[in-house]
Design a protein that fits this description.
The structure holds 2 protein chains of 2 kinds. Chain A is of the alpha/beta class. Chain A is 30% helix and 30% strand. Chain A starts with a strand and ends with a helix. Chain B starts with a helix and ends with a strand. The chains are: A alpha/beta, B alpha+beta.
Chain lengths: 299, 503
């Protein structure tokens, strides 16, 4: 078992609406895997199927080597799940919640519990209903990290949190990456970029791509060409060139399969020798914006 | 077990206010009941009698069970517990433990205490007390749990109950307005269907959280139950239990001439006529007696008019030395008026049980409060209620008890007023025990009064049971059940009119 999560043509329909359209994923063990995409892309649906909260309409999913349809009871001793939508027993204090959950987990680490309570600055004697949303998320995260889960599943954990709390949550995750696979869904790309090792982009229930973040970052470049005289626009450009724009003597586009030599040769073939060529690395956010615009234009 | 205990402790901690309220209501109800029992003229105020009515205690149980189950709601997909390593069997066990601990155990303790306070040995009634607990679980708790399992919160639960009540009212109205089908009765097959559905719902919800399927099952069940009165055959008296008697008959029934009614209770607007047939049963052997349980009457006349009754419940007793008693039935006024114009032939099927009297114990009422041996704790109510014993019977195995007393042996004040012409009569009452229902108080309260019939079949109340009145208690054994068919010809039906009543 080298995959922490594996899905095979997962489909989920809610009456006539198809929320997932054949999702196939492979999350390697030890990865910090980010499932990103706009609201309504199907991220939460996918996670709920993985956690056996809802059933898939068709297809198959495995979590830690077990069919997701069987994920319940003892299997959940190895999985930590935190979701923005999850209810919490609000009548409990933070301390009561931790005390209550302790007997459920054989691997509960009391010293880690103290450490996390301190790290997240959690007030043990405050009822969850009296905590802010951010504090509740931190309490939920602490209660899901403290038993050293093999898999941590986070569904939109940063939504609606102030930057300070986001940072605290994010800082809490890399420490766990050594022992756990982290599967996190978000539409907050800036945060994801800081700690994810893999990324998958889901849109309208379809997986656009899934790869290591380093690979993604290395194959996307913002390219700017300057010419002495305005070049004539090419009739046809390589399919890997996205959002090609020509403005006087400047041409800009995004190369989605960047290879310095090949890309330079393609430029020269189409435009001749430019005065300058600039290849700029792109942020995750910029990459997704380009892809989203490209999709919109091609739709 | 650790998980069961953990969940149980959490529930106990979370729901302690509901637990306290439930136990307090139970305690107050027990106190109120004991108080009322000890005070024949009830001094409790309207608030005490009505506010602490028996329905409040089950309502508190409903709240407690519902809140307990909703602690780990089985409806929805946002509950925190569904992504935690709960074992559904342990979760369900914790909820069962919660119910047993905070509902059944206090109820059991209260019942044991009440038995002890009343002077009974609780351990002697342990199986019956435990059976009452089981009945509560089967009759109420499983149903509440099933409804709670398919609702997400208390509001949904109350809405479901409201809809259920509305549905029952609609069915009852339909039964009244559209047609008059058979009254639904809870026979064992229907009981198993209901219980089976509830258990299936609980299993589905706890093991799989199949809320849509579970809700459909419950809706289907109640839909089916609503059709039961129309779908099931009319429930009739099981005549097969009473085989036709052959010679020698346990008794021969004959119709006695009707004595004029002592007083008329007719009113001009009444549309149903009550008919009384005084029957004598000759041949009842010494040491035995008959109880007529049901009769089936067919009336015909020379004009071809015919009327058939259904099987009609009776409770007439026939003894060797007091062998006359009345059976009764009702007839529509219009039909009665057509029949009474001429002679009528009556065919009557009499279904009866033959008992051998045994284990007779002679007993003299020792005081105003006393124990009827092996039966009940009783008191003689003060004037103006004297004469009728008020007794509390603890839960018993199925048994029949016959209590008898001579009219002239009554020691009640003014008993002589009742005696002229009836001094030789013996008053009887036949009591049956052992029909268990889910009850809060572990007693059946009885008003015991005796009645005897003269040679014409007219029934009279015993002058009363007071301190010093001798009683005979026996435990009759059933010898057999039979039915006999008797024909009475050329009757003047008007002679047997006992009165009229408004339907």
């Amino acid at each position: 078992m080298n995959s922490a999560i594996r899905t095979d043509i997962l489909v989920k329909s809610f009456r006539r609406v198809e929320a997932l359209k054949g999702l196939t994923l492979d999350v390697p063990q030890g990865a910090v895997y980010a499932l990103v995409g706009p609201n309504g892309a199907g991220k939460t649906t996918a996670i709920k199927i993985l956690m056996n909260i809802i059933e898939a309409t068709s297809g198959h999913a495995e979590v830690l080597g077990v069919s997701s349809a069987r994920i319940r009871g003892r299997y959940l001793e190895a999985i930590g799940y935190v979701s923005e939508n999850q209810q919490v027993p609000e009548w409990m204090t933070v301390g009561m919640l931790l005390d209550y959950l302790r007997p459920f987990y054989p691997a509960w680490d009391a010293s880690l519990e103290s450490e996390l309570v301190k790290q997240f600055d959690l007030p043990r004697d405050r009822k969850l209903r009296h905590l802010s949303r951010g504090m509740r998320m931190k309490a939920a995260l602490a209660s899901s990290l403290v038993y050293h889960p093999k898999l941590i599943v986070l569904d939109e954990p940063f939504t609606g949190l102030d930057p300070l709390v986001r940072d605290e949550l994010i800082q809490g995750l890399p420490d766990r990456a050594d022992e756990s696979t982290i599967f996190v869904s978000s539409h907050d790309l800036a945060e994801i970029e800081t700690f994810a090792s893999h990324i998958a982009y889901l849109e309208e229930g379809k997986l656009r791509f899934a790869e290591e973040l380093t690979s993604l970052a290395s194959r996307f470049r913002e390219v700017e060409l300057t010419f002495d005289v305005p070049p004539s626009p090419p009739r046809k450009s390589p399919s890997s060139w996205l959002q090609l724009q020509t403005s006087a003597a400047v041409v800009r586009f995004t190369e989605s399969r960047f290879d310095s030599e090949r890309t330079s040769n393609e430029i020269r073939t189409l435009f001749g020798e430019p005065r300058t060529i600039t290849f700029s690395p792109m942020s995750l956010r910029s990459i997704f914006l380009v892809m989203a615009r490209t999709d919109r234009n091609s739709a | 077990m650790k998980q069961v205990w953990t969940i149980f402790r959490k529930d106990a901690r979370h729901h302690w206010p509901e637990i306290v309220v439930s136990i307090a209501l139970l305690a107050v109800y027990a106190w109120k009941d004991t108080y009322d029992w000890k005070h024949p003229v009830r001094l409790t105020t309207y608030i005490l009698t009505e506010l602490w009515s028996p329905s409040l205690v089950p309502l508190s149980w409903l709240l407690l069970i519902t809140r307990g189950i909703h602690g780990e709601s089985l409806v929805g997909n946002r509950q925190f517990w569904i992504t935690r390593p709960y074992d559904w069997r342990k979760l369900a066990s914790a909820k069962i433990l919660f119910t047993l601990t905070f509902i059944n155990l206090p109820l059991f303790a209260m019942q044991v205490s009440l038995l002890a306070i009343a002077g009974f040995r609780p351990m002697a009634y342990l199986p019956q007390l435990l059976w009452i607990q089981v009945l509560w679980i089967l009759a109420l708790f499983v149903g509440i749990a099933a409804l709670a399992a398919v609702t997400a919160n208390l509001v949904q639960m109350l809405l479901a109950i409201f809809l259920l009540v509305l549905y029952v009212i609609c069915i009852a109205t339909l039964m009244e307005v559209i047609s008059k089908p058979n009254s639904p009765s809870l026979d064992w097959r229907l009981g198993i269907l209901i219980l089976g559905t509830f258990v299936a719902v609980l299993f589905l919800q706890y093991s799989r959280r199949k809320t849509i399927v579970s809700r459909s099952l419950i809706i289907g069940l109640f839909g089916l139950l609503g059709l039961v009165p129309w779908l099931t055959p009319k429930q009739t008296f099981d005549v097969e239990e009473y085989p036709l008697a052959h010679d020698p008959f346990p008794a021969r029934f004959s119709l006695l001439p009707r004595q004029p009614p002592k007083q008329s209770n007719s009113a001009p607007y009444n549309d149903t006529v009550v008919m009384r047939f005084p029957l004598s049963a000759v041949g009842v052997t010494s040491g035995s007696f008959l109880e007529v349980n049901e009769i089936l009457v067919t009336l015909t006349n020379a004009l071809g008019l015919r009327w058939d009754s259904d099987w009609l419940s009776q409770a007439a007793l026939y003894f060797p030395d007091q062998n006359s008693a009345e059976v009764s039935f009702q007839l529509k006024r219009k039909l009665f008026d057509r029949f009474k114009t001429g002679p009528v032939n009556a065919h009557v099927v009499v279904a009866f049980t033959h008992y051998a009297d045994r284990d007779t114990l002679q007993f003299v009422v020792p005081g105003n409060r006393f124990f009827l041996p092996s039966l009940a704790t009783c008191l003689v109510p003060e004037k103006p209620y004297w004469g009728q014993l008020k007794c509390r019977v603890p839960p018993r195995r199925p048994t029949v008890v016959l209590i008898s007393s001579k009219f002239d042996a009554s020691t009640c004040p003014q008993s002589s007023e009742y005696l002229p012409g009836r001094a030789s009569l013996v008053g009887h009452t036949l009591l049956r025990f052992g029909t268990f229902v889910p009850s809060i108080i572990p007693f059946t309260d009885l008003g015991i009064y005796l009645s005897g019939s003269d040679e014409s079949g007219n029934s009279y109340s015993h002058p009363g049971i007071c301190p010093g009145t001798p009683l005979a208690l026996s435990h009759p054994a059933e010898i057999g059940r039979n039915r006999v068919e008797v024909d009475f010809e050329n009757l003047s039906l008007a002679e047997y009119e006992a009165g009229t009543r408004k339907q």
